[in-house]
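Troubleshooting log. The previous structure file for this entry was overwritten by mistake, so regenerating from the original sequence record. Sequence copied from the archived sheet and checked twice against the printout by T.R.
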Amino acid sequence: MAIRSTKTTRAKLALQFRARMAALTGAVLLALVAIGFARCGDWVQGVFARINSGHPILSLAMAPLVFMGVVWITRRATPLARGSGIPQVMAAAEHPTSAAAGESLSLRTAVVKFFGTLAVLVAGGSAGREGPSVQIGAAIMRAVHRWMGVPLTSGIVIAGGAAGVAAAFNTPLAGIAFAIEELASAFEQRVAMTVMAAVMLAGLVSLSLDGDYIYFGAVTATINGPRMMTLMIAAGIIAGIAGGLLGGLFSRILVAFAWSQSGWIARARKRPIVLAGICGVIVAATGYFSDGQSWGTGYGTTRALLTGGAAPLSFGPTKFIATIATALSGAPGGIFAPSLSVGAGVGQWLSVALTWFFPGVSPGAVVLVGVAGYFTGVTRAPLTAVIIVMEMTADRGMILPLMAAALVADAVSTMVSKRKLYHALSLQFH
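Regenerated output below.
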């Protein structure tokens, strides 16, 4: 009996050691992939910019043609690579050993997701790489654990997805908050250490290779005295109302297209290639009429607005339309980065009104609360929104206005769209 007990203890210790090594190895690998993904994303957007500069007619034709081609390839190779990737990870976390989870988090799906998203960006699609990084990260974590003979659990899937967010944005705390608020509908204490270890290690790898960069650059909003703080909290409340309404509308449209049995929506779902082409035309048209502002992630324009720069007032509305069209196309691509950009557009409109009446208000600070408000309106994850905005701008002084914007947006978005976006979309993948 003693010998059997000793063997059992050794087996448990060996499994624990393999599990820890698998989590650490997976975190390092997915961080490296996330960094490569980011650099490839920047490169392909540069390629599109050069094409648009030298051959504008070709750039207009690229979106519908590429969208149709990517959707056709995705549906034939691995249909579960479509869209953001976050709903797939949420569904896989609930049933990690199911066949659907295995397909969602296979390395083949991750490869299609990687190159499909890049193809959407090289055609000017209004997409981000952060949502796809969640699915790719979870797929890598799953593969490493299988190679090391560690049983797959919900915690492993959640850890991989959360680490993907942390590595993509260089925001470790936001990765943890995202795991709690979004990926795990019932977060279990026993997976907390796995999640935090994977997230922090992925963040450290990103930090060591890319340096201590801040996603949008340091944005320091000066708030002098209680009067200015009160004004900024009021701006946060207004931004929360506007962001909640628009973000809730965005969510409602995407959920309706996923589940509505309305005649024309159901017919559109049955013709995915045609739908992708129509969405591509819309993306091309909005880019043309906005002088290219709505194409791509919107990172450059958003950063300019946050640091007090200028942009056309059409940026927010056209980015909103282009992001909806890209998301509905069925092509791989996330909505995180575009949502931050639309939020900056919401903040831009609000800053124009506020700075007119209150000249001392920082336009960048108002844009910041707009980002938090709209992002929360879309994701209904207020804690993640506040933390991710603070980490991406290194501005801790805006915590109260950001919290006001996020909490109000969450409440308003709930009234516009009863179902949370990612949770509703995840039901397609069970």
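Residues 2-210 form a domain with the Clc chloride channel fold (CATH 1.10.3080.10). Archived copy saved in two places this time.
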